[in-house]
Amino acid sequence: AQSVAQPEDQVNVAEGNPLTVKCTYSVSGNPYLFWYVQYPNRGLQFLLKYITGDNLVKGSYGFEAEFNKSQTSFHLKKPSALVSDSALYFCAVRDFNQAGTALIFGKGTTLSVSS
Amino acid sequence: ETGVTQTPRHLVMGMTNKKSLKCEQHLGHNAMYWYKQSAKKPLELMFVYSLEERVENNSVPSRFSPECPNSSHLFLHLHTLQPEDSALYLCASSQVSGTEAFFGQGTRLTVV
């Protein structure tokens, strides 16, 4: 079975500082990995994905994520946080070998960036 | 905004009512999904339609009934709901052979 863990309910960071939102995963095969962001009363917006290739993937709004196979992690990062980055962030996984199946999401991490 | 449109955005219904949520995607996708998002809980996958056939039903109570008449439209029919069914219901779509899914804005459902 596939699963995703986001160990932090909330991450607090000051504007201008680097941020990291953690994610670990479990799949039976090779993973597709994703990060989504959700602003209040809105749907989920796709940020970035890892399919194969370079372990560091870059996405929207200056975010990036690092795939680490040995640690089964896919942490979201940004070198310099903005107040507007404050939102709910979800990590998701899908088994590479199960095309057509839905994404499985973690419980989400609230990012709060203070000015 | 994202190519996936959900209506209505907000819905208040009594426990004896029957209502339907609608989702429409304009992305040419062939897989569609219903998720439930409750406060303090992970997103729960409810139903998956792939090529207009239901391929997954995650032990969802029968008071929720999905319908996928074609690859662009997805409905969630609701009847005799409970207050604990109050949540944000999210629709998403993707290509069956693709990777990421795209979400609608959601329907905020309140059962009174």
In short:
By secondary structure, chain A is an all-beta fold. Chain A has strands at residues 3-5, 10-14, 19-21, 24-26, 31-38, 44-50, 56-58, 64-68, 73-78, 87-95, 104-105, 109-114.
Question: Can you put this structure into words, describing what you see?
Answer:
The complex is a heterodimer of chains A (115) and B (112). Helix content of chain A is 0%, strand content 52%. Chain A has no helices and 12 strands. Chain A is globular. The termini of chain A are far apart. By secondary structure, chain B is mainly beta. Chain B contains no helices and 11 strands. Chain B has strands spanning 4-7, 10-13, 18-25, 31-37, 44-50, 53-57, 64-70, 73-79, 87-94, 102-103, 107-111. In chain B, the strands form 2 sheets. In chain B, strands 2, 4, 5, 6, 9, 10 and 11 form a 7-stranded mixed sheet that branches. Chain B starts with a strand and ends with a strand. The A-B interface holds A 32, 34, 36, 41-46, 49, 51, 90, 94, 99-108 and B 2, 4, 6, 31, 33, 35, 41-43, 45, 48, 50, 55-56, 90, 92, 96-97, 99-106, 108.
Write the layout of secondary structure elements.
The complex is a heterodimer of chains A (115) and B (112).
Chain A: E1 3-5, E2 10-14, E3 19-21, E4 24-26, E5 31-38, E6 44-50, E7 56-58, E8 64-68, E9 73-78, E10 87-95, E11 104-105, E12 109-114
Parallel strand pairs in A: 2-12
Antiparallel strand pairs in A: 1-4, 3-9, 5-6, 5-10, 7-8, 8-9, 10-11, 10-12
Chain B: E1 4-7, E2 10-13, E3 18-25, E4 31-37, E5 44-50, E6 53-57, E7 64-70, E8 73-79, E9 87-94, E10 102-103, E11 107-111
Parallel strand pairs in B: 2-11
Antiparallel strand pairs in B: 1-3, 3-8, 4-5, 4-9, 5-6, 7-8, 9-10, 9-11
